[in-house]
Each structure stands twice: as structure tokens, then as C-alpha cells.
Amino acid sequence: MFEVEFALNIYTNPKKDIKPLMYRLKLTIWCSLLLVSSWANAALEIEISGGGAQQVPIAIVPFAQGDVQENIANIIGADLRRSGMFRVLETGGIVSRPTDVTQIKYAEWAALQAQAIAVGRIEVLPGNRLKVSFKLADVLKQNQLVGMEYNIAPNQLRLTAHKIADVIYEKLTGEIGNAASRIAYINKAKGHYALQVADADGENPQTVVYSGEPIISPSWSPDGTKIAYVSFEKKKPIIYIQSLMTGQRIVLANFKGNNSAPSWSPDGNKLAIVLTYAANSQVYTINADGTALKLLTKSNAIDTEPTWSPDAKWIYFSSDRGGSPQIYKVSALGGEAQRVTFEGNYNLSPHFSPDGKLLAMIRNDGGKFRVALQDLTSGQVQLLSEGAQDESPSFAPNGRMILYATRIGVRGTLAAVSSDGRVKQRLSESGGDVREPTWGPLLN
Amino acid sequence: MLRQREKTVSWQAGALSIGVHGVLIAILLVSVNWKTKQVATIAEVELWDSLPTLAAPPPPPEPVVVVKEAQKPQPVVKQEPLPKVEEAPVKEPVVDIALEKKLKALEQKKSDDKLKLEESKKLAMLKQEMLKDDQLEKEKLLKDQKQKQQSDAIKRLAQAMLNEDNAAGAAQANAAKSAASAGIIDEFQTKIRNKIRSNVNKSLCGSGNPELKFEIGLQPTGQLNGGPKLIKSSGIAACDSAVERAIMASDPLPLPQDKTLFDQFRNLKLTFRPNDPS
User: Which residues have C-beta within 8 Å of that of residue A64, sequence separation ≥ 6?
Assistant: First the structure.
């Protein structure tokens, strides 16, 4: 640029009476110089396709927390590890225990190959309150990424740890985390059935409904405040909706025959349910207050397990109308059903990813019932789980993980698999026979 | 006006282009000559060094000068007897001590200074005698020299041949060196690519087909010169910072040991397509 400008200045300078030929010559020389210099300065170009890393290496330094029992750093680390997006590094070999960004000796943590580091402390405040402060720093850039403070009651410590894990997750991945969400499932123990709600890591289980008769098909309301379920406590399947805040419940559907398989619409105003009201199992819609029942499917087969697409336009369901159990869809306003699954001779229990692009289901894979994932755009199907009797897949709020029930011996237990099939894990053992898990929305 | 100017310009341009071409050809020839000479001299030096037995004989400056002496004075004596004879030794005093002494003796004898012709004849005679005396020696020397020259010529031929081989070898070596350099550059490009790629976390780059461009500067140690400079964003903040972290986590980058190649690696333009197959 400099050369060209210089040459042009000579060219346009009227005081210098140089022949046009000379101008051209100079211009040519300058241009050729420029060309040569641009060659000389040309930076080497390297193209890098693909990526070898799958996880962000992170160090969670144990918090300074005095007599507080719950090891908050362990909870955060386990959450991040379970997400599959992080490699949580062993910090035992590092002597220093920074609790604030200013205390971090970055070289130590860089040597550990950490790219991010979380530090923090818990202080006991008057009035049986805790102050949890935490900071996340970039080890490579040596700067703070985020810092948070929580003033909490002691029983909120686990939830706070999950929230911190989600802050870290979101800061480094750009997506929301799942740690501060909850799951619901049916736990059968000692001849009794319990509808339980637990943290996403399976810890902190709380019983919502307890009965000597079977309880099945729990379904979260979109805002996470209510659960619909089917109870046999009246010796027949009846659909209830129960508030998690107050424990208050209403009967949603107690029609003649079986009432089963409730599923909330994305706006929380309606549910799709299955009744044998007229004859065989058919899909209906009903308002959340139990009004405006409407028949949606009309077949001579068994139609069940309805689920709403995230855009609320479709209801997907299982049906054996074609001879073998397959997944179909019908407009939420009613109409003709269309078949969705064609691969395999047995596909059940459809469940949407939050973005509506993927459909999880249970497939009979040579006599073994496994979680499969169908890409609704391409139609391609990937088997994700490895059990023999896996059931009830449901997506995490960010779509990265799928929760399902698997069987070990005669007992059912909770398992999760990342939606790319890469990370598989079991959730903590509750001691009972755990069935029909369903992942709830994030807690605020 | 314009046309006239154009005509004059084109004439001037033609002349100038011819001139410039001439200069260019001259430069080309000069540079070519210079190159070949340089290669030859370099190769000669190397050969003499490598062959000490051949290098031992050369005190050839003496005989070479003697040959000049023998050739020059002869016509000088015939054409302009006295002054030139005097001049000859004065001009080339270092030539031959024996010859000088004889000439000085002659000058002393010449002090009578009666007949220039006689003296000149005597001088000529003396000179011839001297020359005759010397001639035998000189002939011997010449023979020796010729032999040496012949042997030198043979040697030179051999040398030339060797030089050619060497030159060819040097060219080959140069070609090989540049090829090797290219190979090394390729090799380290691949090493840098592999090191950075191993740190790229593509799971943070969505499901699309993002492309990112970074520019980095390197120190001769392979360490980054400051932070990577984002030239083109993927549109996904987490992906951009994931790739940036990958670059920084790869610090230091592998560089060739040959520091002359460092300039090639001083500034790097990195293009990332994390979701493409690697």
C-alpha cells in the first residue's frame, strides 16, 4: 500500500516534470516490489479440519468450607463430568488451594493441562445462612470468566452446587446446563410404589406419591411445578395431576375403561391422554383442568404413548395398526395419522429432543430393547443404549443427554447416555426397582 | 495532441525497452559468468585442500614470470637497445636476483660509455649469454613447467570434471536442500496441524459446518507471540473460544530445528473447519 501510494504521489505531482514513461516505469517497479514484498511476507496457511478433543479440561479446586459437610466441589465436578462435555482433572497433586482468582498460580494449573479453573468458598453467616462464592477463570488467558455469590439456607447447598455447575457449563459451552434440573421416576420397593423426584444426579430423592397399588407414567408439566401420573389406587388406572409445591392434586381423567399415558402440551394448557373409553386404546386431548376431551386417533389398533412435538403441531404416538408396533404422527388438531418409523419391526415410546430435531424411542434390536435415536431430518437411526430391556427414554432440558431405565438382574435402575452416544453412565442407586424415569425442566 | 504524445511515447518506450532488454541480457550474462566462475573457484579451493599431494608442487609464480621475462626482453633489446634494457630490470626488479646482479655489473662496466652500439652489442651479447646460460635452466624450467602445466592441465581437466561433478552435485544438493526444506516445512505444517487439532473441541461448534480463521505469530521457540487473532468467527461464541483455547493449549508449537526455516513459520494463518472430517 505504501509503495503504491508513493508511486502515485510521484505520478500526480505536477512540480516534478518527469516523462510519462518514467512514471509508468516507476509504477511498474514499485508494483513489482510490492508483489515481491507480499510474497516475502506471505504467512503460511494451515487448514485444520475436525477436532481431536471432546471435553474441556477443568480443575475444580476444593472450596474453603470449614465445617460444612457437603463437598461442593465434588458435586460440581460430578455434574460436569456427567454432562460429557468436561474432563474434570484430579487436583490432589496440586498443593495450592486458591479460593479466589487473585490466589491462582496459573502456571500450576496450566501444567495440569487445565483450560479452566473454578475456585470458591463457603462462609457461615448469622441466622443459619451460608454464603457461597465461586469464580471461574480461564487458565490460558489468565483472566476471570464469571463470578457468583449465593446466600442460601443449608439445605440448598446441593442445588447451589448444581447451579454453579450450570454456570460453568454455560460459560464454557454456550449452552444451558442440566445439573439444576430434576428427574421423576417410579420406585417400587417392598411391595409399594413411590413416585419420586430427585436431583438430576439421582441424589436428594423425595417421594411425591406413595401407594400400595401401581403408579405409572409420570409426566412433568412444562414449568416443572406439576406432575401428571396414572395411579391404580382405585383399582383402575386414573390420571391425576399433582402440584409439587403444595402436594394438592386433581383427577384429570377418570373415564370408563383405562385412563393412561398423560403427556403435556408445550404450553402446559392441554394434555394428550389414552382412553379405552369407546373401545380400544385411542389418543385423546384434554384441557389441563379436565375439560374439552377430544378424540384424536381413529383406528382398530392400539394407539398409545402420545407425545407432543416441541412446536405443538404434532402428536407422535405408538401404534400396532400396521401389524407391528411403530411410531406414527397425527396433527394436534386431528386428522389422518402418518407413519414415522420404518426401520426395524418394533419401535415404541417416542420422545422429542427439545429442539424437535431428534426422536428418541425404544427399538427391538434382535430381541433386545434399546434406546434408539432417529434424526427426523435425515431419517437416520442410531442405537444408543446397550441393555436388554431399556425403556422410557427422555431428553435432558438441553438435549445433550437421554435418561432411560435399564435392568440389572431383576431390578430396574437409571441410566443416561449422551445424545451422540459417546458418554454412558448409571445414576446413583436408590435400592429399589426404578422404572419410567422422565427428565424435568430446569429449576429457576 | 494525444496521438502525437502517444507516438512519441511509444517510440521512447520502444527504445527504452530495447535498452532495458540489453541491460537485462548483460546482467544475465554477467551474473551467469560470475556464478560459474564462483562455483569453479570454490570448487578449486576445496580440491586443493582435499588433495595435498597435488597442492605441494606449486611454486609456479616464478617460472611463469620467467617466461614473461624471456619473452619481453628479446624484442626490447632488438628495437631500443639501451634505455629499454635499463628499464626492463628497473620495471621488474623483483623478477630475478641473479639477472639484476648481472645487469648491475654490466652497468658498472658500462661506465666507460664509449660506443653505445658496442655496448649495446655487448649488452645484447651479455644478455644473450645470460639468456643462453639461463636458457638451459629456463628450458629445463620450461620443460618442467610445461610438464607441470600439462600435469596441471590434466589436473585442471580432472578438476574441471570434478568441478562439473561438484557443481552438478552442488546444484543437486541445493535442489535437494530446497526439496528437503519444503519437506521439512510440510512436515512441520502437519505437526502443527495435528497438535492444534488434537485440542480442538468440536462438540462446542454446533451441528452446522462452521469455519473460523485465526492468525498467530510465533517466536523462534515456537511459543505464541501474544494471543491468537480471530479473523473470521464461526458465529458461535463457544466455538470461537474453544478453537482459541485449542491454539493456546498447543503452545509451544513444534518448529523445525533449522532456524533458517523459521521465517516460514513466523506468521501463520489458521483455518478451522471443526465439523469436517479430519
Answer: A97, A99, A120, A121, A122
Comparing C-alpha atoms, which of A228, A206, A220 is closest to residue A397? A220
Domain CATH number, residue A153: 3.40.50.10070
- Asked if residue A393 and residue A283 are part of one domain, the reply reads yes
Asked if A62 and A80 sit in the same domain, the reply is: yes
B205 & B274 share domain: yes
Based on the fold, state whether residues B186 and B223 are members of the same structural domain.
Answer: no
Same domain, B133 and B216: no
**A143: distance to nearest CA of chain B, Å?**
13
pLDDT tens sequence across B113-152: 555 556 566 656 656 666 566 666 666 666 666 666 666 6
The verdict on B270 touching A (C-beta cutoff 8 Å) is yes
Question: Residues of B numbered 217-256 whose beta carbons fall under 8 angstroms of chain A's beta carbons: which are they?
Answer: 227, 236-239, 241-242, 245-246, 248-249
Alpha helices in A17-173 (DSSP H): 20-41, 72-83, 106-111, 157-173
Its domain, for residue B270, covers: 200-278
CB B242 within 8 A of CB B228: no
pLDDT interval class at A429 (50, 70, 90): low
Residue A220 shares a structural domain with residue A131: no
Whether the CB of A53 is below 8 Å from some CB of chain B: the reply is yes
- ipTM for the whole complex: 0.74
Whether A227 contacts A219, CB under 8 Å: yes
Kindly report, residue by residue over A245-292, the tens digit of the pLDDT.
998 999 999 999 899 999 999 999 999 999 998 888 999 999 999 899
How far apart CA B176 and CA B167 sit, in angstroms, is 13
In terms of domains, do A231 and A118 share one? no
Range of the domain at A65: 44-173
In a domain? residue A196: yes
Interface of A with B in 167-186 (CB under 8 A): 172-175
Mark which of B174, B198, B222 sits at the end of a domain: B198
d(CA B80, CA B124): 11
Judge if A127 and A191 occupy the same domain. Answer: no
Does this model's pTM top 0.95? My answer is no
A114-168 confidence digits (pLDDT tens): 999 999 999 999 999 999 999 999 999 999 999 999 999 999 999 999 999 999 9
Q: Are A358 and A344 in contact (CB under 8 A)?
A: no
Residue among B185, B241, B268 minimizing CB distance to A43: B268
Contact state of B245 with A115 under an 8 Å Cβ cutoff: yes
Q: How many domains does chain A have?
A: 2
Angle between helices B116-199 and B81-91 (to 10 degrees): 30
Are B211 and B143 in a shared domain? Answer: no
Interface residue A39 vs chain B (CB under 8 A) = no
